[in-house]
Structures are given as structure tokens and as C-alpha cells.
């Protein structure tokens, strides 16, 4: 049967060096302490053991403390009464605990505690704490046995018994003290060992913790390394694949390289041959360069000669030249009679009025009155095309590129074909002199570039309307005056005029179209869209020859004069306009007459037109007058006037003209 008493615990207080007491007899018997306590494992085993010493933070509790006197408890054989020792030392009186269902028959037994002498109990145990057998006390053996029954009044026997008990207890106490001392020594040793072990344990625990942390870290590192390793494995696979590919490509490239090496070898051989050829060609080139230089010198000389010849021819032809162009009948004039014009040769025409008097007799039309003959530098019949006219004019454009001043003006009665000749229409076939001149300039420039000339082109467009200069490229109204470039030069310029720098024929055509749109036009009796102003297209050609350090400036004036008109034919609203037009045209006639008569004073400044054309008419300019005449019989008188006027101009000779050429400083 298991004891219902609480199981004893043995503990060692960590703080105190002295272990108080060892309590249980059971435990004392099993207190088989090891000789050495250095091993942690051994200590742990002790901690685990029920009957062992709890070394970790152990402390002997109060109930576990060994009593200072003998506290051995002995169970009654009868199990009827449990006797417990009283806390008092040497107190023999014991308190009986009655168990239900048990009754004592002996009155003495009820008074006497059922306690066996401790000496006997101790002797029966007879085992020390250290496992050594305890020596039996000799006194107990020699003592005379006491009577078991004592009468009430036998105080002496009672005393002897008590004395004996006391002596026994005393002896027991002494033994116990000895045991206690022995145990104390062992406990001290244990305590000492425990402290050192505790320190070691702490150290080991710290180290263990550190190692655990390190282990954790290492395990984390290990995981990372595993992941990295996996990635590296994947990368390795990729790299292996790419290595395979690269190896394949390398093989291909190696093959290619071999091929190319062969090609290079061939090419090196070819190169050597080429070098030899090149050397030969360099020699030839040098020889050719020398020849080219000679040729260029010759060409330059020839160019000079050509210019001189060209100029001589121009001079021989006259610096004021006149072309006469007879326009064809247009659709709306089909029913109208025409003058009789005979083209005697390419420079002469004969004109007479149309005589219709005998037509009824069936003899056909014939010239009425005297036939008049006029000779010019060139006569263009109605069949002549724009291209035919420009062919004759193109030489003058070349002169402008060479640095001469050139003036081309279309003169004639209103509706005679001046604007058609100068501007024409947009179709290339019907393009007039101005657009053709522009194209020709750019074509000629290329030729001149081969000779080393570079050109800058400036263009301005103006009209003289009612004796006022109007800028056809600028919408802002400004005052424009005609001024001399300087006292020496006979060239003129117009103030506040918008000058456009031209880079291509398209740009020049664009300017021309703007000017055409801005020009003052009105319907006259002879023309639905009559130009009521004198329009002037001024193109300035500035050429530079770097090598020869030469610079040339040529001015090209392309003038479309307003048509002369009889005042009586005009509407009143247009009379001032017509007066101004006629005035300026008659002034033009006066200037030409003065030049013919070689008068000292030439009235250039009487009108804006003659003032502006002054350098072209009497100065340093090659002038071409394009006389336009209408074939209509109605216009006969005006045509005759124009022919006479043009004829006068044709006989007008200006002095030797000079090319504007300067040496660049
Ligand atoms: N050579 C030609 N071939 C065909 N048609 C022509 C020719 N010359 C002129 N014409 C036509 O005659 C008409 C009048 O010509 P244009 O307007 O050029 O005369 P103009 O002298 O400029 O007149 P204005 O002085 O009044 O301006 C136009 O319809 C034009 O197309």
C-alpha cells in the first residue's frame, strides 16, 4: 500500500552554502551521491530523479528541512493508530490519532504512545547518508532490560525508563549530529561543485545560445546558399545552353573567318595590283591636272574673249535694240478686220490699213493707203512662240550674269500683248520672258559655276501707278523714292523696297506670282484685264570668283509698261490713270528724242518711268525694247504710232557700256 504521506523532496538552496537538513528516511537511504559532480549529464540526471537532489534553483522547503532532533516516523504495525512525533525535544507524550472502527482495550496503551525507541529504529536502519554503515552503540547492548509492565506507583522504574529513553535519545542525537556533520561536509562539497557547475552550465548555456544563434544564422545562410545554388544551377544550365550556341556560332564564324582570310589574301594581292595601278593613275592624274590647269587658263582666256566678242556683237547690234512682235488675232476678235502686214524679212515689216471697199466686188481684201515699212532688230510674226522670242533675249540674260546692266521693256498699245510677252501664262509652253529669264539665270549659273563663279540673287518687284512707286512684294504702304547709288555710278535704287534673296527658280516664280496678283489692273476698251501701271521686275545678280578674286554685279530690269490709250476712248474714272500713263510714255519718247539729238539735257526726271529707266536708256546698260502691236485694223493708228516710236528708239545709240566688274580687296 502506497503511503499517503507527502513525498519528501530534497533540494539545495543555491544562495546558501549550507544545506539545512535531509528529511526523509527513504530519501536518505537513496542519497547515493556521486564522487565527482563535474559531468553536466550526471547533474541533469540527478535533477530528473525523484529521489535525487534538485540542483537547479533548488531550495530546501520548510517541510523538507531535516528536524534538528530525531524526526523519524514509524508506522504502527496494527495500523490502528498513527503516532507522530511532537516538535518538542525529548517530549515523550504523544497524541494518538484514533481511526474510526478501532478501539483500544488496554487503558495503558491508550496512555502510552505506540512509539518504538528511536535507538532501535535507528539501529534497524543502520545506514549513513554516505551509504556507509553506521556503528551500533555499544551502550544499548549492555543496558539491563526494563520490565515491560510498570505499576502506577513505581516511579523509579518509570524514571529509569524515561532516563533510558533520554539517554538513548541523547546518544541518537549525538549520532545524528555526527551524521549531520558528515552530511554537511558532503553538502558543502556538493554546493561548491554545484556553484562551479552552475557557472559552467551558465557558460555552456551562453555558449549554447550563441551556438544556437550561429546555427540559426548558418541554417539561414545555408537556405540562402541553397537558393543561390539553385539559381546558379539554372544560370549554369542557361550558360551551358548559350555556350553550346556560342560554340556553334564560333564554329560558323571560324568557317567564315577562313573564307574571309582567303578573300583577304586574294584582296591583298588585288590591292597590291591596285596600288601599282593607283601609282600609275596618280602619275597620269598629275599630268592631267597640269593639263587641266592649262586648259582652265585657256578656258578663262577664251571666256574673256567670248565676253568681249559677245559684247562687241551686242554693241554692233546696238545697245538699245528693238524687237517687234505682232500678236495673233484672239478668239473674240475673229469678226474684226485686220491690218495688212507684210513680213519682208525677219527684221522688216510693211503695214497698211485694211481696205474693204472692193471686197464686195469679190476681189478680196487689199491694203488701203500707203504702205509703211519698218525695220527693227527682229520682227516676230503672230506665229512666233514665246520660246522664239526668248531665244533672242537669252543673250542679254547672259550679259547680266557677266555683270552688265540689262533692261527689257515691253512697249505697245493696250491689248497689244505686252503682259502676254513678259509674263505669259502658267503653262510652260506659254511662259513669258520673265519666268523664262529666271529659269535661264539658274541654268546659266551652273555653267558659270564650272568656271568658278558663285552667285547671289536678289529680286524686287514694283509698279509705277499714277506716278507713285508701289512695292508689289510688301503690303505695307511706304513712300518710295528713286535715288542714285553714288555720285560716280550711274546706277539707281529705290528706297524702302522689299528685296527678296532668291535661292531657287521656284522662289523667284513665287515672288513673280505675288507681284502679278498685286498689280493694278482694269478693263479697258481693248483689253478686259488691262495693266494700268508700269511694272518693273528687278533682279540683281551678284557673282563672285574666289580664285580670280573677282566680283560682278549685274542688274536685270524687266519692264511691262502700261498700255497707251486714246483719252477719248477711256471712261472718266480712268482718265487720270490714262493721263499719267500717256504722260510717262510721251516722256519716254522725249527722252529718246533728246538722246537721238544728243542734247545736253535729257529730261529723265520728268516722269518716274524715265527716271527709273535712266541707267538703261542713256547709261551703262544693254536695253531691249519689245514692241508689241495688235493686228486689228481698229488699232492701226496706235500701231503706227508705236512703230514710229520704236523705230526712233532703235536709231538711238548710247555710249560704250561698261561691265560692272571689281577686284575683291
Ligand atoms: N502672242 C500672243 N499669242 C496669243 N495671244 C496673245 C498674244 N499676245 C497677246 N495675246 C492675248 O491678247 C490679249 C491682250 O494681251 P495683253 O493683256 O498681254 O495685252 P497688254 O498689252 O498687256 O494690255 P494692257 O496694256 O492693257 O495690259 C490677251 O488675251 C492675250 O492672251
From TrEMBL:
Residues 319-652 form the Kinesin motor domain. Residues 1-52, 83-110, 124-145 are annotated as: Disordered. ATP binds at residues 412-419. Residues 1-11 have a biased composition (Basic residues). PANTHER family: KINESIN-LIKE PROTEIN KLP-3, PROTEIN CLARET SEGREGATIONAL. GO terms for biological process: microtubule-based movement. The keyword Cell membrane does not apply. SMART domains: KISc (SM00129). Keywords: ATP-binding, Coiled coil, Cytoplasm, Cytoskeleton, Microtubule, Motor protein, Nucleotide-binding. One of its GO terms (cellular component) is microtubule. Belongs to the TRAFAC class myosin-kinesin ATPase superfamily. Kinesin family. PROSITE patterns: KINESIN_MOTOR_2. InterPro entries: Kinesin-like_fam, Kinesin_motor_dom, Kinesin_motor_dom_sf, P-loop_NTPase. GO terms for molecular function: ATP binding; microtubule binding; microtubule motor activity. Pfam families: Kinesin. Residues 201-263 form a coiled coil. Transmembrane segments: none annotated. SUPFAM superfamilies: P-loop containing nucleoside triphosphate hydrolases. The keyword Nucleotide-binding applies. Residues 18-40 have a biased composition (Low complexity). It is found in: Cytoplasm, Cytoskeleton. This is Kinesin motor domain-containing protein. It comes from Microctonus aethiopoides.
